[in-house]
Write a structure and sequence with these properties.
The structure is a single chain. This protein is α+β, with helices and mostly antiparallel strands. It contains 5 helices and 4 strands. A two-stranded antiparallel ribbon has the order 1-4. The protein has a two-stranded antiparallel ribbon with strand order 2-3.
Length: 160
């Protein structure tokens, strides 16, 4: 199954949070760092090899990403950023059925913690005073109209 360049760019941007062209630019400049540190090629040759039209545009892009010029990388040891290749891992879950039963429970309140940093709870935790939201899509099997999400003394699916 294929997709157009436009569709691929949109999917890439959605998954990574950056545009495809930005990722390519960062990868080329990361390769340029490697070439500058591990070869004796001229900076102009590295710029042309990595797709830049002139050493000036290469230097401007390099300084914008790394904060130093390409020539200073060769002269002194500086701390730089690298951008390794992106890999995607697709995991599909929920294909198999799940057995459940419906139990009647007394009214209860559900509380939880979410992933935010506060002085009150420490890193990664945030107090949450509201109950869980309703499911984003209705279950395939119909449940009684009064569920635990919306009504007291409702029904709640319980895994077996």
């Amino acid at each position: 199954m294929g997709c157009s360049v436009y569709e691929f760019s949109r999917i890439f941007s959605f998954l990574t949070g950056m545009s495809l062209s930005e990722h390519i630019r960062r990868r080329r400049l990361a390769q340029a760092v490697f070439d500058l540190q591990n070869s004796n090629e001229k900076i102009v040759d590295i710029a042309l090899k990595d797709g830049y039209e002139s050493p000036t545009t290469f230097t401007r892009a390099f300084r914008g990403l790394h904060g130093v010029t390409p020539s200073s990388v060769r002269k002194m040891s500086v701390s730089l950023k690298t951008y390794p290749p992106i890999t995607f891992l697709l995991t599909v879950k929920g294909v198999t059925g799940m057995e459940f039963r419906i139990e009647k429970k007394e009214c209860f309140q559900i509380m939880g913690l979410s992933g935010y940093d506060t002085a009150e709870c420490g890193p990664g935790l945030r107090p949450r005073s509201t109950g869980l939201p309703p499911p984003s899509r209705p279950p395939r099997r119909s449940l009684p109209a009064r569920s635990a999400w919306s009504a007291p003394h409702g029904s709640l699916p319980m895994p077996l």
